[in-house]
Amino acid sequence: GWFRRLLHKPKPSSAESSLNASRSTSSSPSSSSAESSGSSPGTSASRSVRPSPVSVSDINASGSARWAKSYDVCICHSEVDLELVEELVSYLESQPESFRCFLQLRDATPGSAVVTELCDAVQNSHCWVMLITPGFLRDPWCKYQMHQALAEAPVANGRTIPVLKDVDRKDYPKELRNLYYIYMALKERSFKQIRDTVVRYLQELCRSSSSGTE
């Protein structure tokens, strides 16, 4: 009897079908939106997770929490990787957000102590990008930079962004094992991932700052 009733159940009209379809679409993000949220901030999927999104114009606004520090990004790297780091800095500084990057050989004050310059840069940056390469792992100075950034992060509420290049997972520094990293296979794609990560952090920073003042 139930099967016969099911067969004779009246079908919804086309108007009702379209209405139900539109409701189901708006209540759950599409798979394409979910995939895009991992690579670019501000997509429809990320908006469903984060209410009241912060736009790029809000990040660049004069009263933004971004300007509380001198730099958006501090780059920690080995000297042998300077050429790649210079490409990364050029990429970030040419973005619409005009990221302010600290590059030690370029921005350190002549005559100032190396350690002092490093500590000041770490304290006055929102994010710290660590380019972890074989040269980074061999250099004691790079390990010192890493420890300084990790020590400063809880106090400064900053974001440490490890970037692995030509390094096996087993050689990933144990001090960073609790942090997700970016693996640099394709340079252009990795640069974009770094840029998107910094943008998301600045969005979170501006959002928390605005909610704290309300």
From TrEMBL:
Residues 1-58 are annotated as: Disordered. GO terms for biological process: positive regulation of canonical NF-kappaB signal transduction; positive regulation of chemokine (C-X-C motif) ligand 2 production; positive regulation of tumor necrosis factor production; toll-like receptor 4 signaling pathway. InterPro entries: TIR_dom, Tol-interleuk_rcpt_adapt_Tirap, Toll_tir_struct_dom_sf. Residues 69-198 form the TIR domain. GO terms for molecular function: Toll-like receptor 2 binding; Toll-like receptor 4 binding. Residues 13-57 have a biased composition (Low complexity). The keyword Endoplasmic reticulum does not apply. Keywords: Receptor. It holds the Pfam family TIR_2. GO terms for cellular component: cytoplasm; plasma membrane. Residues 1-11 have a biased composition (Basic residues). This is Toll/interleukin-1 receptor domain-containing adapter protein.
